[in-house]
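name: query_chain
kind: protein
chains: 1
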Amino acid sequence: MEKRQKELNLSELLVLLFKSIGNLIKWLWNLFIQALRLSYRKKWIVLASIVAGLAWGYFASTPDKQIHKASITLKTVIKGSPYSKDFIKTLNADCGKKDKSSFAKKLNISEDEAKKIVSLKSFYLVDISTDGIIDQVDYKESFKGDTVNTWSGNYLYVEILSKDETLFPTIREGIVYALNNDASVQKEKAFMNMQHSDWISMLDEELEKIKELQSKMFAEDVSNITSLSLRQKPKQQWSDPNVMTVLGETKMQMFTQDKVRSMEAINSHKRAIKELDEGAIRVELPILYLGVTNPRYKVMIVRAFLCYLLGLGLCAYLENRKRIIAFLEA
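structure:
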């Protein structure tokens, strides 16, 4: 009985919900029809309001008031993209402050240039199926915790809004400058440089030992070949008179591989040091200009619609002013 009562209550609730939605749609439709009728009856007032809105939008969207948008992709050699993302959050917070001195100092730009920057926003880049290829920008962080489609730990996408489109190269260099000169990044860079230098020193010592051992073994092989040549070679060796020489070259080849591996490891560490010297965080791709966020036509349409609503309000007041006055007096 109780279960049946709950089912009835749920069905009644659904009926009430759908009825409320239907009434809301009906009310909105009636309001729309009334607005059309009122617009027709007071068409000159409404038309004047729309024209005023278009003019307002036209003069409010002059080139010096337009907001330009561009994006850059950063490569983070150390610290990784999460640290760089948090750092750019602090830059964006400084950008929103009235006093731009701290923000300008971090980016190594003038305060006048800093005042033209609207915002800096960073987003993770997604490596779908973890194949090493960057596939898309995760604007809503919807891939957080995904083990198959992961965020890139070395690349970061940054969107820049500026009042001056010619400033984008300067802003890009400023962001890279701020990240590379961050105290934590500098400390990590010095530590990594020291690690790579230690590896190079150790590998150089090992390489010298391999060269010495190679020379020693080669000398022993040559000595054995010389001593054997003075004696009669076994019968089975006459078919290949260079068997001992081949043996010596085989030993040489063994050490050559060790030398190559050591030299490759040394060069790898040298390349890492060179990358760090070029910049712990640097630009990976050219600036991508994404256009104007508030184009003139869009501003004009929005302002015209606002003025249309204000005009409707004025028309509604003019038609019902006697009722409104009587209501207020009562």
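note: Confidence is low (pLDDT under 50) at residues 230-250.
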